[in-house]
Amino acid sequence: MGHAPENTLLSIRKALELGTPCMEMDVYSVDGHLVVFHDRRLERTTNGTGYLLDQKFNDLRKLDAGNGEIIPTLKEAFEAINLKAGVNIELKGPDTAAPVAEFIAKMRKTGWHDDLLLVSSFNHRELSELKRLDPGIKLGAMIVGLPTDDAAFAQSLGSYSVHLSLEFIDRRFVKDAHDRGLRVFVFTVDHPEDIKKMKELGVDGVFTNYPERVLKDNTVTDTVGWP
Q: Residue 221's pLDDT is what?
């Protein structure tokens, strides 16, 4: 979103242009459709008003999500990426686990293998349900704060990774997560000094609105997917 309206096909194309190896998108299930959108309400990123989940899908598609972009479906986002990057689907709304599990099952048949996919959420109930529905899906457990037992909660969920806020990450948490076999991804890391700090802490990846800043001076391989 540092270069184009967030969660739009335009931003996806820009991320690919910048060489982003993996990208995150926020997903709600609305009116029987999986849509890519971040907020509970429409006002910040569209010319609409009200709660996203109160809308009809066809009405949502008439809104301007920035620069004339429409709110995309998850299927459209995957078609735009076209296996050129890994995808982290963040479950935002209620009852998203089942439709996302069904969607991923369909995507596997089109060439999307599990190494390219990650599903994350602050709603750990949804992650548990997803794990029950499809044990093969990699999970990213999200949190804002520092639990007393560090990354134990993510391990208990059977997660692949733990996603922590920049405001709370510290060396102890990173070590504990790594000792448990978990990857550590930090959000949202835009400032060059913060990017440097995350490298020093040894995190495995960051969420950023400026991928070119993170990729600068890094060695980027030809493979895509999660570190």
A: 44
